[in-house]
Design a protein that fits this description.
Among the domains are: about 40 residues, no CATH class; about 110 residues, no CATH class. Helix 2 packs across helix 3. About 5% of the residues are buried. With about 230 residues, it is mainly α. It contains 7 helices and no strands.
Length: about 230
């Protein structure tokens, strides 16, 4: 009973597909008139380079030419691999999002934008953010420059006001000191409005004719010695 049941279960089990064990495949005869397949890129490269090496290195055997051609091809592949830039790796988060969007499109979400459009939008958004960051830096730099210029201008105005006040004080002091000394020749008396021209003319008289104005020089020295210029 047990044997029969086992035999029945083995007969009903699905048979494995494949070539039967022990049976040889029958090879079909080749058709001599059949067209030949196209040469591969490797064979075309070897054929061209073999002809070039044969012309430049006469007397080499066939196997030596083949070795040189194969070495040249390996060198070209290595150089091309070094020159070609390695594409940057995407962040894992971006890869997961792209896969999720692809799965949603496959499941039947026609309203979702395509991957190429999303990539373009992300690239545009990144470009805008970079430009915005650069502009923000320029704006901050300009604000710092404007603040510095305003501070320097305010300081310069304060210095100019102090200098102007000092000049007015000096004019009043000189006018008060020389108010009793008229200019020789014109008998002009100094005022706060004319003290500048008065001092220029007085200096010119003393420098040009010191011998003739000895008394004037002594008087000026006495007045200057009594000035309190602070």
């Amino acid at each position: 009973m047990t044997t029969g049941t086992a035999g029945t279960s083995n007969d009903n089990s699905p048979k494995k597909k494949g070539w039967p064990k022990g049976r040889k495949r029958r090879l079909l005869p080749k058709d001599s008139n059949a067209p030949k397949g196209p040469l591969s890129g490797y064979m075309l490269f070897m054929s061209d380079q073999r002809e070039i090496i044969r012309q430049t290195n006469a007397g080499l055997a066939f196997h030596e030419i083949t070795k040189l051609t194969d070495a040249y091809k390996k060198f070209m592949q290595k150089q091309q691999k070094e020159e070609s830039p390695t594409p940057p790796k995407k962040p894992r988060k971006e890869i997961v999002e792209e896969r999720k969007e692809e799965e949603e499109e496959v499941r039947g979400y026609p309203s979702r934008p395509r991957e190429a459009e999303l990539r373009q939008l992300r690239k545009s958004n990144t470009d805008y953010e970079e430009q915005n960051a650069i502009l923000q830096k320029h704006i901050e730099s300009m604000k710092c420059t404007v603040d510095r210029l305003e501070s320097e201008t305010s300081q310069q105005r304060s210095n100019n006001a102090a200098l102007q006040q000092h000049i007015e004080t000096l004019r009043r002091t000189l006018t008060k000191a020389f108010m009793t000394l008229p200019l020789p020749g014109s008998q002009e008396m100094p005022t706060e409005e004319s003290i500048d021209s008065y001092m220029v003319q007085l200096h010119s008289l003393i420098v040009n004719n010191p011998q003739q104005h000895q008394n004037l020089i002594q008087t000026v020295r006495g007045i200057v010695s009594q000035l309190a210029l602070t």
